[in-house]
Amino acid sequence: MTQEERDRRPCMPADPPPAPAGGWGVGELHCHTTASDGVVSPRRVVDAAEALGLDVLAVTDHDTMDGALEAQAHALASGARVQVVLGMEITTRRQDHIVGLFLQAPPAIFRSVPDTVDAIHAQGGLAIAAHPFLGLPSSISVGRLREALRSCRFDGIEARNPYMKQRARERLREVMRRDGERIGALVGASDAHFGDLARNVTLFAGRSAADLRRALEGRATVPADGNVHHPPPGLRAHAQNQYRSLLRLPAKRAAILWRQWRQG
To answer: Which CATH architecture has domain 24-262?
Structure first.
């Protein structure tokens, strides 16, 4: 793929900032599949990422890595250009959601935020605060984030997410001014449940998952609004999402907690 072709990829923002030498790599760092409450299979998510020209795709199903593992295997077997990062969106004790990237195994769920972040770091992963300051049970508040920062550090925080309105972005700017060194890189992510990838993306120097990791660790990523326009999900897709979210996921979490309890 030539540089001109890379610049014209569907996943590229309409008005990106000046690119480094070699152009921007584009990553989607938060998406779900049928392994949790998404309605698109892991294979179809990889195929969609490939069609959009994404360089890196992080599959981050709720409390499971099954979808990420299947997606990575499909990407390798199909010869896809997109590189799949093994991830997971982890439910903590107070329901704050933390995205773990570059994981080796699923961290325990329903632990405190600091314990969850430490468990991600213990296996060489990176910890990203998901969709912050939305005023929802799954979204960490300013107060709980600052409380957690007393005993842990994050590697990044979602600064561009389709669910973040202006007020949440203003709160994020305040927090970054005060605690940015312990919060890490700013990222963009779609939190896609319907295969609607690249609504928000993370730009980084390079093309590979290793390049993305270096940019995250160096706080050199750029969150951006995507230029992809997906049709609204239909009633059937919404029903599938709600069924998986309200019925299947709680049952799966109960089974995970039972196993954790049995294992001590």
So the answer is: Alpha-Beta Barrel (3.20)
